[in-house]
Write a structure and sequence with these properties.
Number of strands: 5
CATH topology of the largest domain: Calcium-transporting ATPase, cytoplasmic domain N
Largest sheet: 3 strands, antiparallel
Helix content: 25-40%
Radius of gyration: 20 Å
Length: about 170
């Protein structure tokens, strides 16, 4: 019965046990990461909040042959710093590819920095953070990624959330 219901919705299942399990489900929520396609992601748009030179999302497809505006260099830099150095996650790979393509030979890539500490995602804080030390040992940076409300809380934003995410 479950296999019939799934086939009526044109769903492909890799394992027979999945068919048995999903056959009685009425709702299935998934996170699209490209698993059914090539398991690859690419950054399409960038938005640097509160920068006059970019007042709307910067579409990479429209500007693919250009250099990135300076206003988004730091955004890409911190996307990479918040990710694993050798990423396996499709989203993190997309950040790294973006940096390699547009920020190579700039001060925004830090292959020589040391990862001092990683704070994983937790139920209390829906964000993960990396603490980095510069090659000369004089500078420390913290890069985080996660749920918008968690990042806003870490940055001590009070009234920005309704304005940014409306």
């Amino acid at each position: 019965m479950g296999a019939w219901r799934i086939s009526q919705k044109h769903v492909l299942a890799r394992r027979a046990s999945a068919v048995e399990t999903l056959g009685s489900a009425t709702v299935l929520c998934v996170d699209k990461t490209g698993t059914l396609t090539l398991n690859q992601m690419a950054v399409q748009q960038l938005f640097a909040y509160n920068h006059a030179e970019i007042s709307h999302p910067y579409n990479l497809e429209l500007h693919s042959r250009e250099t990135l505006p300076e206003a988004v260099h730091e955004l890409v830099e911190f996307c990479i710093l918040a990710s694993q150095r050798d990423p396996f996650d499709p989203m993190e790979k997309a950040f790294k590819q973006l940096g390699d393509r547009y920020l190579a030979h700039t001060e925004h890539l830090h292959d020589d920095w040391l990862l001092l500490r990683e704070y994983p995602l937790s139920p209390h804080l829906l964000a993960m953070s990396h603490v980095w030390q510069s090659a000369d040992g004089q500078e420390y940076e913290i890069a985080a990624k996660g749920a918008p409300e968690a990042i806003a809380d870490l940055c001590h934003f009070k009234n920005v959330i309704p304005q940014v995410f409306e």
